[in-house]
Specification:
- This protein is mainly alpha-helical.
- The chain has one domain.
- The protein has 3 helices and no strands.
- The chain is elongated and about 55 Å long.
- The termini are far apart.
- Keywords: Membrane, Transmembrane, Transmembrane helix.
Amino acid sequence: MSDSSKQPPILNPKNKIVFNKIILIYSIFYLALKIYAIVFMNQWLVENLILSSPIIVIGILAHYFQREQIQNWTFILLSIGTAIILRLNEAKWILQIHEFLN
């Protein structure tokens, strides 16, 4: 009756493509917001660049994976986890980096 080997819908291979595209779009959007904050809101340049470096790497990897049609659950989960941790601690970490550099 029910096939126990059937994958849940979230594990459908097409979803990996969608998640990879979402990660790529999020990376572009995040960097655009950082550039806006640095240029128009006079935020600290070095601190924001340091904090944005993981998202820059994730965006470059997502672009490469998208271009080469490589889908990897490990990359997707680590990217989502990194983005969540970064967004939750961003304000605190920017201040800590600023204090460390000055």
